[in-house]
């Protein structure tokens, strides 16, 4: 069974974040709260861990996962960001958006679509931001839910019920009422809404 670690959702304790980072560096898979729902993740540079997440989610290999960065500067390392894209992201991040952008050579193949694009998030959640900053690498981001789940996952105990035997660590960061992120393509430097979710979309229209 996964360990459960309670972290302050507003002021994450650095020593607890260090424990999470240690699990990620050792190739662990974690569940964590975001600004949209509880997520499942790992270090995107650990291929074994990424493959484990594919198995947990029963997801086909041709559908890559998105990942989280701590800030816009980091996004520019892993994707090609045009002027319009930069301006829009600077105004709206951190926030409940996943931006689709052309990936750079730094992104592992397993995280790229056939079109060589990536989905990137900077969630408005102190725990997430503290983890990716302390790790120094992006963290894979996918919902802690399966296609056939009827009941939403609201807290760490729901996550433990569903994924406790398949992940290494579950972070308890309080309740998160699930509402998926809005997905915005900025591939041609012009915004296109691919999925409407949480967050104001008027800024992209």
From TrEMBL:
Protein name (Swiss-Prot/TrEMBL): Threonylcarbamoyl-AMP synthase
PROSITE patterns recorded: YRDC (PS51163)
InterPro entries, sorted: DHBP_synth_RibB-like_a/b_dom, Sua5-like_dom, SUA5_domain
Any one Gene Ontology molecular-function term assigned to this protein's record: double-stranded RNA binding
Domain of life: Bacteria
Pfam families reported in the protein's UniProt record: Sua5_yciO_yrdC
Domain YrdC-like: 14-199
Gene this protein is translated from: yrdC
Organism: Desulfolithobacter dissulfuricans
Lineage, top ranks: Bacteria, Pseudomonadati, Thermodesulfobacteriota, Desulfobulbia, Desulfobulbales
